[in-house]
């Protein structure tokens, strides 16, 4: 279990090491390294998702490890409260950035082993603090340094705690 302590409150996440071992271990690695501390939720769309884990408050993108294999084909769904890895258009391009679903977003699920069908790999779920996630989703947003949907007041991940 991982607790993300944010400027809005704590979000507790349970990882699914059985169905998403590569993604879960990748997330844990970044947590153990302190990578997420000081990053912001840089893309917030109410009713859809909140995305973070890659940018600092000045929108500098942090250097990451190599991309991981996409595990979206392992049966986990992009449901309300699930956490998944963000990626580029390339299916196997996820590194550190993640998002938490604010709704059931089945259009993000795996449908085929094609670029369009791969989907986004869910690797856990919020088990406490969903009200924090929803409040982040309601933040006022704008454009900052070429990025849309950025909260006007930075929402930071201040601390990450791994609970065994």
From TrEMBL:
**PANTHER family referenced in this protein's UniProt entry, alphabetically:** PEPTIDYL-PROLYL CIS-TRANS ISOMERASE CYP38, CHLOROPLASTIC
EC numbers, comma separated: 5.2.1.8
Question: Gene3D superfamilies given for it?
Answer: Cyclophilin-like
Q: What is the recorded name of this protein?
A: Peptidyl-prolyl cis-trans isomerase
Q: Which principal EC class is assigned to this enzyme?
A: isomerase
Keywords linked to the UniProt accession: Isomerase, Rotamase
Domain PPIase cyclophilin-type: start-end pairs: 1-162
Which InterPro entries does this entry report, sorted A to Z? Answer: Cyclophilin-like_dom_sf, Cyclophilin-type_PPIase, Cyclophilin-type_PPIase_CS, Cyclophilin-type_PPIase_dom, E_coli_cyclophilin_A-like
Recorded catalytic reaction(s): these are: [protein]-peptidylproline (omega=180) = [protein]-peptidylproline (omega=0)
Tell me, in a sentence or two, what this protein's role is: PPIases accelerate the folding of proteins. It catalyzes the cis-trans isomerization of proline imidic peptide bonds in oligopeptides.
Q: Which residues form a coiled coil?
A: none
Q: Which branch of life, at top level? A: Bacteria
Q: Name one GO biological process term.
A: protein folding
């Amino acid at each position: 279990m991982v607790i993300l302590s944010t400027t809005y409150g704590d979000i507790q996440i349970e990882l699914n090491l059985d169905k998403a071992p590569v993604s879960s271990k990748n997330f844990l690695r970044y947590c153990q390294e302190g990578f997420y501390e000081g990053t912001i939720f840089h893309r917030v769309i109410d009713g859809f998702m909140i995305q973070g884990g890659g940018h600092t408050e000045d929108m500098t993108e942090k250097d990451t490890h190599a991309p991981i294999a996409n595990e979206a084909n392992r049966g986990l769904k992009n449901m309300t409260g699930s956490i998944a890895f963000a990626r580029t258009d390339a299916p196997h391009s996820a590194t550190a950035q993640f998002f938490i679903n604010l709704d059931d977003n089945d259009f993000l699920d795996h449908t085929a082993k094609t670029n369009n069908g791969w989907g986004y790999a869910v690797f856990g779920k919020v088990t406490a603090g969903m009200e924090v996630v929803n409040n982040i989703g309601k933040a006022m947003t704008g454009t900052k340094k070429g990025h849309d949907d950025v909260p006007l007041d930075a929402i930071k991940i201040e601390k990450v705690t791994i609970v065994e």
